[in-house]
Amino acid sequence: MRRRSLLLAAVPAGLVTLAGCGDNSSSSSKASASPSASASVPPPKIVDGPLPAITAGTKFDEKPTVAKGSGDPSKNLAVKTVIAGSGKTVAENDFIQANYLGQIWSSAKVFDQSYDRTPLLMQLAAGSIIDGWRYGLAGRKVGSRVLMAVPPTWGYGTSGNSQAGIKGTDTLVFVVDVLNSFNSKSSSTGKEVAQSDAALPKVGTNTDGKAPSIDIPKVDPPKKLVSNYVLEGDGAAVQSAQTVLCQFKGEVWDSGKVFEQTYESGRLAQFSIEQMQSVVKGLAQGITGKKVGSRIMVVIPPDLAYGNNPPSGGVVKKGSTLVFAVDILAAM
């Protein structure tokens, strides 16, 4: 089972309900994260140092070795861009994909790192990740390596983190390689794939972050699950044990009514494939095996959607076939 990052302050924000929400809903559930220990503290003053040296693994996305801190650390948040990237500028509340190493200033003991597993995928939002990251990475560019020294105030507070062996007085040192970032305007940008079957919906190929069109033909829906590429990305195939970050739009086949979407809502959807199996099984199956960076069209028959138990008060009815357009932005 994939190890949970010690950086996470609580449950990831941005989880979606996937329930019928009305004729033209663009809502997802609000952030479900409880406040982090440092959520009520004021923003830190950001200074240049002191910071320990990176002594090995000095290239971008190479596992680093970092020296022990020398003397007393700053009581402010020390941040330095060691390698300047040229990609998108990261903003607070963006989702980031990053590799990182964290160690304790006074001992150089590494308490967590992602280089030997998979990159972190997390929102830079209050209650989702420690505040040192939230403030220290905002304004940095994708492709950058950032070195930070995070005092307890913007880390785990005076309680520390016993699981990681972090005391309430420990300043933490991080090396963070920012691999990518995503926000509510992100879209898949894969290679366009022909949509030639007249008996299936045709999905728009715009890549501007706006909701793609879904043109549903006036024919009976297929009886079995359909999952086809609209834009084929070049990332790794999504595995059933992973968590995905995506944009999506869901419509009812018979009426063409939108029952939920993230496009143009100001938020993204983040959910585990295993979790989705118990909500809309066909969506979990349709995403699994598809490449990250793709837009897919998924047609879900009733037995793999809500069947005879649709959400009350919405446009999804008993026996409804559902159609999704999904941009698979990232997976962890």
UniProtKB/TrEMBL annotation:
Matching InterPro entries: FKBP2/11, PPIase_dom_sf, PPIase_FKBP_dom
One Pfam family this sequence matches: FKBP_C
This enzyme's EC code(s): 5.2.1.8
Catalytic function, reaction form: [protein]-peptidylproline (omega=180) = [protein]-peptidylproline (omega=0)
Lineage: superkingdom: Bacteria
Regions crossing the membrane: none
GO molecular function: peptidyl-prolyl cis-trans isomerase activity
Span of domain PPIase FKBP-type: 93-182, 241-332
PROSITE patterns noted in UniProt: FKBP_PPIASE, PROKAR_LIPOPROTEIN
Signal peptide: 1-19
Residue ranges with Low complexity bias: 25-40
Protein name: peptidylprolyl isomerase
Organism, scientific name: Streptomyces hyaluromycini
